[in-house]
## 1
Amino acid sequence: MKSEFFSGSFEPEIVFNLQEKNVESIPDATITQESFKIVVETKMSDWFYTDQLLRHLKSFSDEKYKVMITLAPELMKSEKKIEFEEHLKAYNATQTYPVMHVNTTFEEIIDAIRDVIDERDYEMQEVLDDYLNYCYNDKLIIVSDSWKRMRVQLAGTTFNFNVSENLYYDNIERGFSAHDYLGLYKEKSVRAVGKISAIITAVTTEDGIEYKAELGELSDNRKQQIRKAIEDGRNYGYVLSANRYFFVDKFYETDFKKITPRAPMGTRVFDLSQILETEQLPETPEIAELLKSKTWG
């Protein structure tokens, strides 16, 4: 809320001050926290009703910061949002502190949280991954726009193998939102991008490796590539006993530079249509070429 909607003016945490001057005295210390209240209405689709949302306004009192979040897998229809916000505008005219309406999706919340979590805050990164997995499994994230999404993964040690075999592997328990493109990060830049053609899980059991195709075809050649990846992983101390393998048609060289310090510690998802400023993506080789002139942070 602080970074996305209040431009830093909202401070939700307790603030400690020493020797804070006021008009007539200087106390040794002050401990303050600005009042705020967040009301959330959640639906499984765009089933929001203006009457219900207006009744929710009674949940607020005299808080300084008031936020109503309407949350669903998809955004509200524009006409419905306009109707509610017209009523909200009239309500706010009678209030000392207005209510802010934030209409968002589960995926947008995840993206916003990912932007503010420190990349080396491993505990929170794991919590976010768990939540992403939950949202993906319970269909709280709509996959219809996967065509424009590129998921970027760290691939320093295994980069050459990933590119030569046109595959990337990750722990089977790690969640992910749907995406059609995969980018490999190495040395402060996304160095390769490919379009996903298959996603296959491989779990080692007492009876051998059990394969399951989540996307695309489970061919003998892909099984052989997975076995090759398991063998290659041993060179780096990896035990690939339960992993998900992402196959791409081909990884193309690119140079999508990260201009801020520190390498990302986990997944990052980009909207290629926004980065490339187009409503229709070109073929993967051209995407790779265009990304060379773009940066991110």
## 2
Amino acid sequence: MKLAFSTLGVPGVPLPEVLRLAVAHGYHGVELRAHPEEPVHPGLSPDERSDTAAAFKAAGIEILGLAGYPRVAAPGDDELVIEEIRVLVDLARDLGAPFVRVFPGGEDEDADAIAARRLGTAAEYAADLGVRILLETHDSHRTGADAIRVLGLVGHRQVGALWDVMHTWLGGEQPQETYAALSPYLGYVQVKDIASAEDSTPLALGAGVLPLADCVEVLTRHGWDGWLCWEYERRWYENAEPLPELLGGGREHLGRLLNDSA
């Protein structure tokens, strides 16, 4: 498996410093939070997109994906959500990123059908550009069982799943159950750690309660060789310890888990 971290953990940090951190601590890739307050977002010009892709290539670091914010199951106009996804897919294509992340955001009993309809339409566009749209286990669809209700309806290879280990755990799902549900669709896995179900302040990997060892063991046992991405939510918890101080230890912890599960 390859290791990455999300820029959600280093909010607003310039790309040269992000790349320096990735290289210094032995990460293979970076997940870019695609938001206007970050260096990479859909408003970048063509030249800025080219420069960003070139900087990653020169550093030998891959752009794992773009963490976007479309809420595909939310009430409202389909076309607005679909266009939001298309804009992200365009940016991913220009940067050479294989994935874009979307959220569920459902609010009623029609959420599954709404999400499937929008994702199915967006999938055709994404297929032409070679980008895969990943529905994260989050909010209204926090477990693998929830996510596959939507993914099964979509039935398109360009739409898959992003497994956030915190949300599936909070939803009461065991890692083996999540993997069994998501394995046909799995794009990559977001790892993290927290103190408890009541306190989701981000912690160093291995310092909290999330079943990271079980998750890695399940993935290894099934021969999965994709990405583990550390999503440290510093943007939402400004009193959390700065991520740069934790990256080395996090890389070592994931390496131990991978060795132990081999």
## 3
Amino acid sequence: MNGFDERFLTRNGLAARQLAVLLLNHEPDTRLPRVRDFAEELRCGNGTVQAALRLLEESGAIETAARGHLGTFLVRSERSILWRLSGLGTLLAAMPLPYSRRYEGLATGLRTAFEKAGTPFAITFMRGAGARTTALLEGKVDLVVLSRFAADRLIEEHPVELVADLGPATYVGAHGLLLREGASLDAPGLRVAVDPTSEDQRMLAERAFAGRCDIEWVESSYMQLRDLFAQNLADATVWNLDEVQGRTGMGGEVLPLGDEVTRDLSLRNSSAAIIGRTEGAKALSAVRDAVDLSTVTSLQAEVLRGERVPSY
């Protein structure tokens, strides 16, 4: 369909646009629901649904075939046309700032996978899972990328739901304990830097130093870390080693986190998750069905190995 088609402003056209959202969730060569089932879901008459299906066929969005008592099957669908007719628009996803090659690979994989799915997609970069989630809840973005660990907590507290889990080592490779040169973990009053915008980092730091009542918490961001250590304003922190490696330039030690911390949190904390607003359930379902997660992870791996130039 090229240009603007005024038929989609009619009652039948409105039903066709609503049907387009539903049909995004159907794969080719699968049986469609009955007309009366569509009519019940859309709260319209059977004739309106039949007219809407004809509109979608005439626009090139779908091709159907009646197979007798087996029902009507979706022979072919053009996802890009269905998405445009649905009115869902361009999906805007909020991601962490691309400080690391892992994040660059993740952005590259997501952009490519959405393009292959025929879904308009754009990325905005925001530091802090809390800030990204606020943008989601306020309707400023449609999707948020964060750790599975943070996603699980947010799903419990807000009307958001999981769209995808990309698996271990897709969000971070590992977290480690950074110790300033000359500092000792056993020193009383150890000053530990925490980033108030990062749920993951704060929780990991609290777990790593659990049981110590002498800790002095120093609020900082990634960008402040080098200065804090250089000026002797902080002694230690827990940080994403993807971001730290080769960037801090401040010496010191990188130590592994304790077994109790890593055993409990490593998988959920290292896995990238995508969440969206529950009120957009149909769109989220369409995204789940369309996006090939293996494309995301394979392209991310290529970027990490230096075999692909990041493109996002």
## 4
Amino acid sequence: MATSVRARNGGSPSPDAPPSRSPRPGARAPGGPSARRSRLYRWDLKATPYVFVAPFFLTFAAFGLFPLLYTGWLSLNRVELGGDPQWKGLENYSDLADSDFFWNALANTFTIGVISTVPQLLMALGLAHLLNYKLRGRGFFRVAVLAPYATSIAAATLVFAQLFNTDYGLINSALGLVGFDPVDWESSKWPAQIAISAIVTWRWTGYNALIYLAAMQAVPQDLYEAAALDGASRWRQFLSVTIPSIRPTILFTVIVSTIGATQLFGEPMLYGGSVGISGGSGNQFQTLSLLMYEKGWVTGALGQASAIAWVMLLLLLLVGGLQALISRVNRKKLGG
């Protein structure tokens, strides 16, 4: 009792009392510079990744998102070059629905896309299958099939325009040697579309072949060895092993080729020469991109051109949705 009284009165503390803790020399109080540095460090960890990716989003907003939204707004107005916009609502879209030129361009885009994409991907599959085997000079052939992709659109189109020339083209000369009459590759609808599709096929077959080749090389060799032990030929291995294994890659190339066909512009414009923008003298190979260019910069109807651009965007979104649906169905089949 006396000991506790002395402790309260400033005497020596009780032996049972815990020792008092005095601050260490040089220790900083809470909220000092070390605490601020800790907060700055946490903010640095959180904000630095956003700072690194910010240039992409700023560039996309300036050159991607804003033009997209502005084009959508223009599609709802009547806009002439040098004039003020006049609100029209969905009138530009209804005019497209009633326009024979629009439906002709849509049909041409579809047909050129089909007759260029299907042969292109089939040939790419065959080339990739051949390059997947151990051939002499395989590296050279892999580089050679990519050479057309590195060629400019203008150069390739000018060469093919000479090959398909009606009067002195090499194609008509070869047809004459086997007894066929000359074909009007420029003024006739289907010959002109076939010629343009040949340009697209020549440029993109090697590119798709290398994509297929990369996918084929990722297929496990055990599958081929098991198929060979079962007596499967190379053709049967290709159909039963290779194609199912690279099915996602095939779907990817189909979607990308479809998108490219929807945006086809350079090949038909250069092939047609002076009437390339209108898709020939009778609009026989005018695509949606050519019609959009003609509406916007030849006739000056920027509102209608913007409406065509948004129709093309909706078509691409439809293609993307179809791809997602097919991929989901394939995943369910594999999971089941």
